[in-house]
Amino acid sequence: MQTFKENILKQIEKIEIGKIFTTDDLNFPIEKLGQVNNILSTQNRNGALDKIENGAYYKAKTSKLGLGKTSPYPTELLRYLTKKLNGYTTGLNIYNLMNFTEQVPNIITIATPKTIQKFKFKFDYLNIECVKAYCNKIDNDETIFYLRLLDVMKDIKNIPARSEQNVYESLRKNYINKLNKKQIKKISELAQEYPPRVRKILSDILYDLGYKKLETELKNTLLPTTKFNLKYRKYESA
């Protein structure tokens, strides 16, 4: 009959090489948690598992070129961290992928609704920082897409090698203009959790695109006396 340890080792054996896992990914009675942690620690000491951080492990692949063990792919590290923090990747790295800037930063930013003080995670080639997310319910890829657009608006003054006009036009033509009315309504609702500057920029874009009702609703959330000093020019489309 298979022992408890053998059962855990069998589960670990089935985990894909390079995938980061924790005790949450293993099936066992909760009262056996301490025993499972001991098994994982022993496997780590024996070299069968490598550790990312306390409680997180992966099975490393040995390089065929004699370069030793290989680390997890950056995408896997980001998958693990965003899941752990209930967050999403944003910042200059994402803005680069969305063609808002050509600069590639050496720090990857994760936005999370969790309260984390000066969180930084450095592993080999990855340097990751965390910032507070404005939205507490990050539940699907569609929501993340809208949040990233709103983050661009929030950071419009700090995107390298792009003027505010360039960023505004790219948001308007390449992204917001391609959303349907239901999607426009959703991003407008999310914008209300962001600072006034974001609501101002989105309301201007909605005005340009002819969504006068939603533009007015967003505009009404702003104080009439607020000054934004935004350096872009609006357009009114047909």
Which SSEs are present, and which pair or pack?
Layout: H1 4-14, H2 33-45, E1 50-53, E2 56-58, E3 61-62, E4 69-70, H3 74-85, E5 88-90, H4 92-97, E6 108-112, E7 120-123, E8 126-132, H5 141-154, H6 164-175, H7 181-191, H8 196-208, H9 212-219
Parallel strand pairs: 6-8
Antiparallel strand pairs: 1-2, 3-4, 5-6, 7-8
Briefly, what is this?
The protein is α+β, with helices and mostly antiparallel strands and 238 residues long. Helices cover 42% and strands 13% of the residues.
Architecture overview:
The mean pLDDT is 90. The protein contains 9 helices and 8 strands. The chain folds into 2 domains: 59 residues, Arc Repressor Mutant, subunit A, CATH 1.10.10; 145 residues, no CATH class. The chain has 238 residues and is α+β, with helices and mostly antiparallel strands. Strand 7 and strand 8 form a beta hairpin.
- What ranges have pLDDT less than 50 throughout 5 or more consecutive residues? none
Q: Note the beta-strand portion.
A: 5-15%
| Order of strands across the main sheet | 5-6-8-7
Structural class: alpha+beta
Query: First CA to last CA: what distance?
Result: 75 Å
Anisotropy-based shape: elongated
Largest sheet: 4 strands, mixed
The counted number of beta strands is 8
How many helices does DSSP assign? 9
Order of helices and strands: HHEEEEHEHEEEHHHHH
Number of domains: 2
Rg? 23 Å
Q: How much is the average pLDDT? A: 90
Helical content band: 40-55%
